[in-house]
Structures are given as C-alpha cells and as structure tokens.
Amino acid sequence: MSSKRKKESPESDGSTRASNFPDEVLERVLGPVKSHKDRSSVSLVCKDWYNAERWSRTHVFIGNCYSVSPEIVTRRFPNIRSVTLKGKPRFSDFNLVPPNWGADIQNWLVLFATKYPCLEELRLKRMTVTDESLEFLALSFPNFKALSLLSCDGFSTDGLAAIATHCKNLVELDIQENDIDDKSGGWLSCFPETFTSLEILNFANLNSDVNFDFLERLISTFSQDLTANQCSELESAFNNCKNLRTLSGLWEATALFLPVLYPACSNLTFLNLSYAALQSSELAKLLAHCPNLRRLWVLDTVEDKGLEAVGLNCPLLEELRVFPADPFDNEIIHGVTESGFVAVSYGCRRLHYVLYFCRQMTNAAVATVVQNCPDFTHFRLCIMTPHQPDYLTDEPMDEAFGAVVKTCTKLQRLAVSGLLTDLTFEYIGKYAKNLETLSVAFAGSSDWGMRCVLDGCPKLRKLEIRDCPFGNAALLSGLGKYESMRSLWMSACKVTMNACRLLARQMPRLNVEVMKDEESDDSQADKVYVYRSVSGPRRDAPPFVLTL
Amino acid sequence: MTPPLLGGEEEGQSNASLVASSPSIDCISSQNGLGLKERNYLGLSDCSSVDSSTVSSLSEESKNNMNFKATELRLGLPGSQSPERETELCLLGSGKLDEKPLFPLLPSKDGIYSSSQKNVVLGNKRGFSDTMDGFSEGKFSGNPGINAMLPSRPSGAQPTIMKEVPTKVLQERSRVTNVTSPNHVNASNNSAPAAKAQVVGWPPIRSFRKNSLATTSKNNDEVDGKPGPGALFVKVSMDGAPYLRKVDLRTYSAYQELSSALEKMFSCFTIGQCGSHGAPGREKLSESKLRDLLHGSEYVLTYEDKDGDWMLVGDVPWEMFIDSCKKLKIMKGSDAIGLAPRAVEKSKNRN
After folding, report:
1. Alpha helices in A314-458 (DSSP H)
2. Is the CB of residue A527 less than 8 Å away from at least one CB of chain B?
3. B136 touches chain A (CB under 8 A)
4. Which residues of chain B make contact with A445, given a CB cutoff of 8 A?
5. ipTM
6. CB atoms within 10 A of CB A186
7. Is Repressor a UniProt keyword of this protein (chain B) (predicted)?
C-alpha cells in the first residue's frame, strides 16, 4: 500500500501553474516510465514533477552504494518495491581490492525493513552479504519475490537456506559467480514441498549434493530459465523442456552427456558453457541444434575450429564470450586466436557484444571483425600477455582499437589490451562519442593518452585503469569531469598522494579514496578510487582506505 | 626373478617393461606383432628441445590404413637376441582403429583388449604394442632425466618490443611474483621454461571463475588424494608441437578411445605443412614422404605418474592408469628410450 503523501507545495502567489493536473494524475501518468534515466529527467522538470516522480517510482537503481546513503534514498522515494545496488569497484573481482573493503548490505536492509516493508526485489552486485543479512531479509519482507546476487561475497549456503525456508513467495533466485562458502547441499531442500512459485533458479556454482528428484520436479515447472549442476541425471527432464530459453551451469558436459541436451535446444537463446571444457567437435555438434542462439559463453578449449562452428550455426548470435580455460598456466596451452574471432564475425553479423580472451591477435583481424559487425556496443578484447603487439607485424595494437572506435559508433563499453601507445587513446577520445565504460591495463605511453579520453568522451561514466604510465597531470586534467562520471579507478599508475589531496580539496563532492600497497613509499598513491557522492565521505571505511 | 616377459604372457595380464638397446626409432605396432627391434632408450639426454623443433612428418594416411613396417621394436636384455618383429606406424595410423590403434595399449586385467598375438619377448624390453599381448609385469619407470626432455616452453626472455615505461610500471608497480617480463607468445621454442609474470588480477578473470576452473582441471591426486567424480584433466604435450592440449581422461573408458582422440588432436602437428584446420592434401602422400615416414621417428605415448616417473601408456589397466596419470606426453620413440629399465624394478617394488 503506498504511503499517502501530503500536499507539500501550495501554489505560489501570482504564478499560474502550467497545468492543473491533480498530482495523483501526474503520478499515474508517470507510473509506466521505467527507465531511471527518463525518471531522472522527469524529476528535473519542476518541483511538481519531481514530487510526482518520487511518489510514483517503484524501482531504484543505485550504481554505487556509496554515492548516496540509505536515508537519502528512503526519504526521497517512499514507495520502492525493487532495489538494485552495486558496491565495490569492478577491479575487486580480480583481487585488486582487499577484503573487508565495505559495501555491506546490512545497513540498507535495516532501513528498508522499516521504510519499505513491501519490498519485493533486491539485486546486488559486488556487495558484501552475510548470512545474517540473508536471514534478516528473509524474515523482514513478507512479499519478497526476487533475489539476485552477482559477484557478491560474505555468505554461505546457510544464508541461502534461510531464504529458501522463509521466502514463501519467492519467484526468482539468481545466485551467480559469488564467493559462497559452500557448507552443505541441504539448502535446496529447504524449499517447501509444495513450492510452486519459483520460476527462475540460478545457482550454477555450487557443488552441493543436489537432490535430483527435487530438482527434476522444479525443472518440470520451469518454462523459461534453467540452470543445473550435474545434468546427467536430468535427461528425462530435458526431454520435456521444449521451451527452454537459457541453459547454463554445465560443469561436466562431456561428449556422452551433451546429446541429452539436443531435444531441449531448439528454442535456446542463451547457452552458457563457460564451465565445461568442450572440444571443438563437441561444440559443433551441439550448436547444430541451436539455431536460435543469441548469446553464447564458451571456454577457449573449443579453439578456432569451435568458433568456426559458431559462425556456421548461429546466424542470430548477438553476444559471444570466450573465457580462457588456463589463464595462468605457464605452459602455453592453445586456445582461440584471431582466426576464430574473424570466423565468428563472418557468420554472425548481428554480433554486438564480445568478450574475448586470447593469446594472439592482429590489427588486421580486428579491423575485419568490426567491418563485418559494425554494431558493437560492447567490445572487450583481452590479449592475455601484457604489452603484446600484433604478432604478425610486431606493431602496437593501436590500429585495432582505432578501427573499433571508428567503425562502431554505438560503442558503449570498451576494454583494451595488448601493446598500446597514446595513439589508441587519441582514437578513443576522437571517435568514441558514445563510450560509457573504458577499461585499460598495461597500456599507453604518457599522460596525454588519459587526457585524450577525459577530454574527448562526453558520455564517459566509468574509467578503470591499472598499470599504466598515467600520472598527476592526467588525473588532474579530469577535475571538471569526474562529477559527471560514476567513478574513476587508477591503480599501479604514477599518481601521487599530493595530487589526490589536491583533487579532493578542489572537488568536495567527490570522494577520493586511496589504498596503499605495503611496500610503496609514502608519496605514491597506489590505488585511487574517485567517485561522486551526495552523502559525503564513507563512514564505514576500514583502516586501509584513506579518505582524502 | 625371471626376466620379465620371458614367455610370460598371460592372457589378460598387463604390464611389461621395456628395455631398449638400439638407437633406431621405430614405431610400435600392435596387431601383427611379429618382430621387434631394439630401441635405444638411453638417448634421453638428448634434450628433446633440440629435436622438438623438427616435427616428424608422419603420414596422414592413417585414414587410408597405411602400413608402415619400418619401426621395429627389439626387446631383450642387452646382448640377448630379440625376435624380429614387424611393426606398423602407429601414431597416426588409425584408419582402422581396431587394427592399428594409435598407441596400442594394454588390455586391462580382465582382458578386454586381448589381442590375437602373443609375442615371445626376451629380456625385459617390450614394445609398446606388446602391451596388447598382456604381459604381467609391473610398470616401468623412466629415466628421471626424462624430465629434462619436456617440450620447451616459450622463452621468458625480454621481448625487444617492450616499451620502457610499461616495463618499469610492470616491474615496479604490479606485484609481480616471478619477475620476468611477459612472454611473447610466439617466442620460438627456446629452452628456459618461462616464468610467466604472475601479475595480480591478470588476466581479468573473476575469482569465482578461477576457482571453478581450478577445480575442474585438477589432477586426481590433488583432489583429496583420490579421483573424484569430476573431470580429470591432464595436459598432453607432444614433442615438436608449439602448444599443449588438455584432455579429460574421464571422457574415455578405454585406451583406444584416448588414443584416437589424441591422434585427432595432434595429427596436424605431424604433417609438415598442416595448419590448424588440417591439411587438405592429406590424402596425397608421396612416395618420398612415405619413405620418410617409414624411416622417420615414431611416437610413443607416455605419461607421468604420481611418483613423477614417466611410463609408457598402456601397461596397466585403464582404471589404474587414470588413477595415477598426471600428464601425458607424446614422445618420439628415441626419446622414450629410458622408460623401460626401471619398470621392472618398480613393478617389483610394488608387487
């Protein structure tokens, strides 16, 4: 039930309102507006619209949990049913952020329990979530329907058991790629026997003993999305899954097992094989049954031949992610190369999202790929050895990314790699006018590179940099820019503490946080995290986070 | 103790040991199993890194069921007379797998693969193919020096294209635990096994995914000391091949399956001009090429067991094999020479 709102602003003297809509009507009109960007625009029109917007908003998206406080959120938006929260900087996924950094959900939950008792959905990314928090969640929100935890940490299967036990109305449980303490398999069976509401169950990572009878029962009620762990027992279930749209979590897919999937594949749009080390022939056989695939995640064990099969069988493919099976191995184990990438691009002209881990690449291949697929919105290429040039010409990979930004005008997200000079960043600054997220590692020659990006990319929101020769001049050149961005991360660059202090002083609405490495000297700012915030410096910063 | 293999075959038994005495390299065969030629297993010290750059061109004609006679495996104690034996090219000769397995492998103890031939073998040498005939000796172990023969890894030397600044950044700033500069992936097969720079958080893979991959690719002796139900990935390297592969041993239930799978994976390396997509000209094997193959090197499949010893594949029952296999290596026969001598002792110690 919505809280009743009081009329806050009487009409001012002498001015006539543009319209005499009752506020309630305006709220109704604004109700269907879902995009939070649109809602932001609406709220800026005038005070009435601001109020109408805030009363009618049911979903709030907070891209950085420290940019705003729970109090501010609950005060402004009284009728929220669904919250999306993101916490740690993205490089925390790769162990660049020490544990106990923060982003704990607990304070938010406590306030939500009083202000949003009707909360239905919670989607968290890179937050710390304890078992206590999960239990608190399960007990505090009787209407709770959907929980999604992506790349979170701090909880165990005990917490999941609490969710399964107490959330009577759960429709969606999506737990992926989290650091979970897997204590036992019992949590799944905490779902009550008569549980029928669950539609989306995603828990691909747990090795718990799964009660397959139970799982089969669950699966047979699914019409849309399914993940499973050890699928070999589910053969009969798959035979009944004609409507399957997504399939993931296959860990032990072997040649023997895969044919089990075939009957279920004709409507598949998303296939996640990124935990199953398939060979090219196995993948090819499987893909022959998946003509409607839009999104495919694989390991590089499928090699270029496997990717050729992708190009041949999946003309509707829009997203491809190729993960490395042995990223840290000292011995060279083959994987995919530029030719696989090119092969996909010839067959899948609608490709617009790629994440590609490889050990060799050429400028020419990338140019060909984007020529075939000019609609890229997300282009993330990871040449796994830092500073690696075009392996055929020995030149830097500048022209590759130049081709990307010149050709793909819709590009929103870019991750670069390989041997890169400032020229890459000149290209980015000059051409990537829709770029919102840029990830840079082991690249660039001087401050100039970073400056090009800060000057040239009007829509830049997230910039994350590691191990690049960008220093104070580059950092400070963005002074006027950072408030329009969500965040900046710079680690292992050439930034000093003094520059960070200067930045903090000049820009009070930015939080400038530094984490120092053990061995570094006092003047270096080893890890810098800068983000805009309306709630001031963090109050829960651990000792190793220096707020300037 | 009786010289192992001396008339000692028993149907369905496995394991024999090999001692080579001649330097010639040949392939081992299975079915016909007539003569055996000596093989010099003592050539271990010749580091394969030298040899590995030249890839033998073995024929692709496997599909066409080519017979190669050349390589003979002679068995017997030094000085003893070994029966001659016809052997066939095995590495790629798998046109008809049932007749010419790539790596003719042992029957398991229950005699699944009992082959028609029985070979009288003198001494404690045995051809690979003889394992098909069911000898009952224990495993043999390889010369420890064999470890020096591991295919060379890409060099860890400084690539000349390294820019000065990034180098500095890399070395000073990132927590590089093995401080060498990053490898150029295409470095030729030089000697020093690369200490690839272990940079924190690079490549950018989520810890969750890292841990999952580590779990699925662990060898069995890392998983609570016994094989779990999960996949059993082992690396397979081949002399002369520029990169390794990985296979999941659990996807095979028999030596023959493994053998044919490996053959498919590595066939492209044994044909000179073969690209990764396979050489279209496979079928046309010139006569000269045939001759090369006849007299060229053949390959044997070896594995490193839990004790770190290198053994010929095929000696033990399949289950025992996957239990103890940590790594696979397709070696040139000449390099595999030292594998035999220890086998008897080892098996004796075991039994």
Report:
1. 338-347, 363-372, 398-407, 422-431, 447-456
2. no
3. no
4. 163, 165
5. 0.83
6. 15
7. yes
